[in-house]
Amino acid sequence: MSTRARRLSMSILVLIVLVSIYLFVHSSFFNINKIYVTGLKAITADEVTALAGIKTGTNIFEINRDVCAGAIKIHPMVKQATIVRHYPRTIEIRIAERKMWAVIPYPEGYACVDNQGVCLDRVKSIDITKYPLITLDKLPARINLGQPVNADAVHMIKKIYDALGENSNQISEFHYLNEDEGIIIYTIAGTQVKFGNLDRLDEKIKFFPQIFNLEKDLQTKEHEVLQYVDLRYKGEPVIKTR
Fold first, then answer.
1. H-type helices in 26-150, by residue range?
2. In degrees rounded to 5, what are phi and psi of residue 241?
3. pTM, full prediction
4. Helix and strand tally (H, E) in the chain?
5. Is a pLDDT exceeding 70 seen at residue 209?
6. In CATH terms, is domain 102-241 a member of 3.90.1150?
């Protein structure tokens, strides 16, 4: 057999193999017969699969995983969605849910937000002692489910809250100043702590045990109450009593 004939035979063989692979990949052997969802607590598998738009009987290779995951993330409780193919006929949808972290009061009630400021729910009333309470100088005109409510403010407050550790249970409110992009913290005893921004975070946090001790000391003195502590400037804090 000539070299040309051998090349032609090889080309035909490769073409037959490729066509066979194509037909096999697109055959009913790879039609999805099982879809399951993992990582759920607050939402249902039916909600997730409906948003994904994946149906049994569809060829597993025809699923656009990025498009399906993006559709699922429309749900306000979904932080991350991943579509995993388990060959030959199973689809797994892995969900990372958002978790409520703080509450933000607004005229009609409270916005429940996660640690990225995304609004998960709107409620008329809630036990605000169970979550950090965040107030804002300026609220958005409308608070929509699945949309962030001043993500920058929540990011700053989350860092402060985490740095406070166990001392966070002595805080009643975190107030964000929109124009200054700074934070005012109110203790349970009513002291206003002018925290400012995240500059010198560790240095500022170290003063909080002293603030709480000073509050206790002043409680024994009927004529003095700690009004505010200013931590915005380097050095010893400015303390005012009344």
1. 45-52, 65-72
2. -115, 165
3. 0.82
4. 6, 12
5. yes
6. no
